[in-house]
Automatic annotation (TrEMBL):
Family: Belongs to the G-protein coupled receptor 1 family.
Regions crossing the membrane: 24-47, 59-78, 98-120, 141-164, 196-222, 243-261, 273-292
UniProt protein name: Olfactory receptor
Domain of life: Eukaryota
Native organism: Cyprinus carpio
Subcellular localization: Cell membrane
Record-annotated G-protein coupled receptors family 1 profile domain positions: 41-290
Gene Ontology cellular-component terms listed: plasma membrane
Length: 312
């Protein structure tokens, strides 16, 4: 048992990838290439929106939060994972583990609240276009962005503050990264309170996001059916289709590993595999989906790319 006073110097051991020696460098190169490509895609979206005044609109300002969040989530995973692969050292201090777990859940929660805010924006734009400018003005936009991040921070801070009163009985982690379910398995005492609050936050984010998305999409669909302008229909469906693809993809990548962690029937290697996919596939797919499917962003990227080629 490790008392509260010694946890700051406590060193934990993450689960190893158990790579053969011949696979270490190929795995490191593949991981580094994947991470750099994720950064390139997300930074491209951020720079494109920031440098083009035509994209300084509520829809794109809300979208700007997504690549920033995705880059944060990917960096949180790959910085530790690439070090572990190259050095074959899976140790991590307990405070660093808590920080990594905090960022893991902050990233996951932010993904949902960002998509929820974007769904609300599309609902106002399509169902109440004449009031859009008044509702989504600069003041309200700042309130929405500040509110969603403060809400997310508050929920996750409470989740991890619950660990402060527990004593640790073991130092071997069962996962490749630190997050709430894996950290709870280190504790000596009953972690029922943490488990209940963890499930509460899981249900809160999913129900909140699903309810808002379902409500907005039903009303958007009704508006599109009753709207006789085919151009308006096509534009609305294209914009919402992109958002829906990203939302459903996130649902699949987050719901299964979190539920699987609480089920003994799911093999451990499957839990470990899915525990890292949420930090790889959404940050990789999201900028590609929004970059290629959103006409305004796609045109700005292509224009910039062509100008760079001509200048060479």
């Amino acid at each position: 048992m490790y008392p509260n006073g010694s946890v700051l110097s406590l060193v934990l051991t993450l689960h190893s990838l158990e790579l053969p020696e011949t696979s270490i460098y190929p795995a490191f190169i593949f991981g580094l290439t994947t991470y750099l490509f994720i950064l390139l895609c997300n930074v491209t979206i951020v720079v494109t929106i920031c440098l083009n005044r035509n994209l300084h609109k509520p829809m794109y300002i809300l979208l700007l939060n997504m690549p920033i969040n995705d880059a944060m989530g990917a960096t949180n995973l790959f910085s530790q994972l690439l070090y572990n692969i190259l050095s074959q050292d899976t140790s991590i201090s307990y405070p660093a583990c808590l920080l990594q777990g905090f960022i893991v859940h902050l990233y996951g929660g932010a993904s949902y609240v960002i998509l929820t805010a974007m769904a609300f924006d599309r609902y106002i734009a399509i169902c109440s276009p004449l009031r859009y400018g008044a509702i989504m003005n600069t003041n309200n936009l700042v309130k929405i962005i500040s509110g969603m991040w403060l809400f997310n921070f508050a929920v996750i801070i409470v989740l991890f503050s619950l660990f402060l009163n527990y004593k640790i009985c073991q130092t071997h982690m069962t996962d490749l990264i630190c997050y709430n379910p894996s950290i709870m398995k280190l504790m000596c005492e009953d972690t029922k309170v943490n488990n209940i609050y963890g499930l509460f936050t899981l249900v809160l984010y999913h129900i909140l996001a699903f309810s808002v998305v379902a409500f907005t999409y039903i009303h958007i669909l009704i508006t599109c059916v009753t709207n006789k302008q085919s151009d308006a229909k096509n534009k609305a469906l294209q914009t919402c289709g992109t958002h829906l693809v990203v939302f459903l993809f996130l649902e699949f990548n987050t719901l299964f590993p979190l539920v699987a962690h609480r089920s003994e029937s799911v093999p451990a290697y499957i839990r470990r595999m899915f525990s890292i996919t949420v930090f790889v596939f959404p940050p990789l797919v999201n900028p590609l989906v929004y970059g290629f499917k959103t006409k305004e962003i796609r045109q700005k990227i292509l224009t910039c790319f062509k100008s760079k080629i001509h200048s060479v």
